[in-house]
């Protein structure tokens, strides 16, 4: 370690290593040297040593700084796509600098990007409405990058909303949300949005059981009427959209399904979902019954759901499914008998469900257990093929013998949750209660080889390309639920803390902290930066869906078209004016502004707002927006550009006049 630091520092301060070396060994002596040594060569080294002293930095601090500092003009090596938790949006972070690069508006309006403020994005947000509710927040848990042959391909990102059971598709060509699908069967989801190895499907598994289609049924009918469900959303790669018509679902027993993962390589065609509350506890604290937390923790075993999705797909396409709320659903009587859905025990309150890079094993943690359990995908497949079961659950689903299905168990510590992998056969498990990252070998299931303390209460964990067929190693990030004494205090609601951990050395090393001030992230994924190739500008006239908009406006063809009480304004924006810059309508008119940015130069973004009308769109170069609203407030309203785009940005303005009706 020491040697490496000095080498690294030597690079920075060529020719000045000696004083620093002394400084690291013995600060006192180094100071004396600096004070006494009037040599003209003191320069950089002395100031570096002084800097370390002044800022109270240890050698380890400096090493961590050198490993994570990205100088101005240089780029990060990886992107993290982090779930923005209750913010409903995705945080994009650079690694190793841990700088926030972007917040992608997904389920929640984002005003800078004009996401949900009157433009075309409103229609995308509306796709996620449930019933009569315009839902404008989300509890985002698990972002997943699209995969080709089990490896991230950098094309799409899928995210789920636990609170309102929805999945969204983000196109990484422009880092914009392109589609939302609302789950018609469940009210909450969790095991999503996980992709199969070629992104054939995006899996969304329910969390809290409810009657499918969310119909009313009293809790007394829990066993008969309540169900879990896994939707297999078919992804159309050509269109870059989920195809609802070709999607289908699996009815699941009313246990609380939790995390999910798709098999790969040897286990391609399979999916795994862990669950808890096989007790089917529903609480009833007012009547003196035990709360769900204790009711759900009675059994020693819950159930891992082992799913043959290729076979399910065949059965569904063969007409074996029942239609519920417009979705084809394979019911348990079929899936249980056909070997599509089989159960196997999982120790106490399991959490996490992670397939190893070779596809041979499934790792499940346990919130109240001290082990991770490693299931053997091949053994389970064999047991299912041979119909070797030890019994059935209350819903007629076959159960495999736990002992026959597992490869082993590793004693990890208190509260193992999630597991990610490196390129050397190591697994890294987040251990919530103990607040450590536990490193262990998934090749020989020994005890952890190392534990690293993190601050504090680590939930998810992520690694560089860590759940693909070829992880990179190098970095792990501990996604901590608490930050306590890590940052300047900001009141009783604390930021979350991402801690970057270097895993390329002999020992794991904590390198940097990053406060997450906008919500509680759950899962994240880290992808090599060169796999992402975003656009720099749009082709002029491109709308929010990424298509050439039929109403795009050419320069010189701006106009206002009136048709009864419908007014269409064909407008353009270019430095530094809107054309037209005066628009007058009558009170009550339905106004649509078709607005095209004619800019073609990189990073020349405009914005457009009409004051008091809750309208704001972002016009990246070439972008087209359609803004429809009712001119329901008579008066005089400035409209202006909301992005400081040029020296005459403040002059990029105009008037929107609404003439009052005669009364
Ligand atoms: S869950 Cu949050 S720490 Cu939703 Cu993946 Cu485990
Ligand atoms: Cu355009 Cu400011």
How many domains make up the 3D coordinates?
3
What is the third-level CATH name, the topology of the largest domain? Methylamine Dehydrogenase, Chain H
Number of strands: 42
Largest sheet: 6 strands, mixed
β content, as a range? 35-45%
Gross morphology: globular
CATH superfamily of the largest domain: YVTN repeat-like/Quinoprotein amine dehydrogenase
Ligand identities: [4Cu:2S] cluster, dinuclear copper ion
The CATH class of the largest domain turns out to be: Mainly Beta
Please give the order of strands in the largest beta sheet. Answer: 8-9-10-11-16-15
Distance between the termini: 82 Å
Nearest-integer average pLDDT: 93
Short recap of the structure:
The chain has 663 residues and is mainly β.
């Amino acid at each position: 370690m020491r040697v490496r630091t000095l080498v690294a520092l030597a690079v920075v301060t060529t020719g000045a290593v000696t004083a620093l070396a002394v400084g690291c060994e013995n600060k006192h002596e180094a100071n004396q040297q600096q004070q006494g040594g009037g040599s003209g060569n003191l320069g950089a080294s002395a100031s570096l040593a002084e800097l370390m002293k002044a800022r109270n930095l240890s050698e380890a601090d400096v090493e961590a700084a050198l490993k994570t500092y990205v100088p101005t003009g240089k780029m990060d090596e990886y992107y993290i796509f982090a779930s923005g938790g209750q913010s409903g949006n995705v945080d994009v972070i650079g690694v190793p600098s841990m700088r926030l690069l972007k917040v992608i508006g997904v389920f929640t309006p984002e005003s800078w990007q004009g996401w949900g403020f009157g433009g075309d994005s409103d229609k995308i947000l509306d796709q996620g409405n449930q019933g009569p509710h315009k839902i404008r927040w989300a509890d985002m848990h698990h972002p997943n990058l699209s995969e080709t042959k089990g490896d991230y391909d950098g094309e799409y990102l899928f995210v789920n909303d636990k609170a309102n059971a929805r999945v969204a598709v983000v196109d990484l060509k422009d880092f914009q949300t392109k589609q939302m699908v609302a789950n018609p069967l469940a009210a909450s989801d969790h095991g999503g949005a996980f992709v199969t190895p070629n992104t054939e499907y995006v899996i969304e598994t329910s969390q809290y059981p409810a009657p499918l289609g969310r119909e009313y049924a009293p809790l007394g009918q829990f066993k008969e009427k309540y169900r879990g469900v896994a939707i297999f959303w078919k992804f159309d790669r050509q269109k870059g959209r989920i195809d609802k018509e070709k999607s289908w679902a699996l009815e699941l027993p009313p246990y609380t399904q939790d995390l999910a993962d798709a098999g790969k390589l040897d286990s391609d065609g399979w999916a795994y979902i862990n669950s808890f509350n096989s007790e089917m506890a529903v609480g009833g604290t007012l009547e003196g019954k035990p709360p769900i937390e204790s009711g759900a923790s009675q059994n020693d075993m819950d159930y891992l759901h082992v799913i043959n999705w290729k076979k399910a797909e065949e059965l569904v396409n063969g007409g074996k499914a029942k239609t519920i709320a417009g979705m084809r659903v394979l019911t348990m009587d079929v899936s249980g008998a056909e070997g599509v859905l089989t159960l196997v025990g999982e120790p106490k309150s399991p959490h996490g469900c992670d397939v190893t890079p070779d596809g041979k094993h499934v790792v499940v943690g346990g919130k109240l257990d001290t082990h991770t359990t490693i299931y053997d995908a091949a053994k389970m497949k064999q047991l299912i093929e041979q119909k070797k079961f030890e019994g059935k659950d209350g819903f007629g689903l076959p159960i495999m013998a736990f002992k026959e299905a597992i490869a082993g168990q590793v004693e990890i510590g208190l509260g193992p949750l999630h597991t990610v992998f490196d390129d050397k056969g190591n697994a890294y498990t987040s251990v919530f209660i103990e607040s450590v990252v536990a490193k262990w070998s998934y090749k020989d299931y020994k005890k952890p080889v190392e534990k690293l303390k993190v601050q504090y209460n680590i939930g998810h964990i992520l690694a560089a390309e860590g759940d693909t067929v070829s992880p990179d190693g190098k970095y792990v990030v501990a996604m901590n639920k608490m930050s306590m004494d890590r940052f300047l205090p900001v009141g009783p609601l604390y930021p979350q803390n991402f801690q970057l951990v270097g895993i390329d050395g002999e020992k794991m090393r904590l390198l940097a902290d990053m406060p997450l001030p906008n919500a509680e992230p759950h899962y994240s994924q880290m992808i090599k930066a060169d796999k992402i190739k975003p656009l720099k500008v749009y082709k002029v006239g491109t709308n929010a869906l990424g298509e050439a908009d039929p109403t795009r406006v050419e320069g010189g063809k701006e106009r206002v078209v009136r048709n009864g009480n419908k007014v269409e304004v064909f407008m353009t924006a270019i430095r530094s004016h809107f054309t037209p810059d005066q628009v007058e309508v009558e009170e009550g008119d339905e106004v649509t502004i078709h607005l095209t940015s004619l800019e073609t130069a990189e990073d020349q973004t405009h914005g457009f707002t009409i004051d008091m009308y809750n309208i704001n769109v972002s016009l990246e170069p070439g972008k087209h927006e359609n803004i429809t609203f009712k001119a329901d407030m008579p008066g005089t309203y400035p409209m202006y550009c909301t992005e400081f785009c040029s020296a005459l940005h403040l002059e990029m303005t105009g008037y929107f006049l609404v003439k009052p009706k005669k009364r």
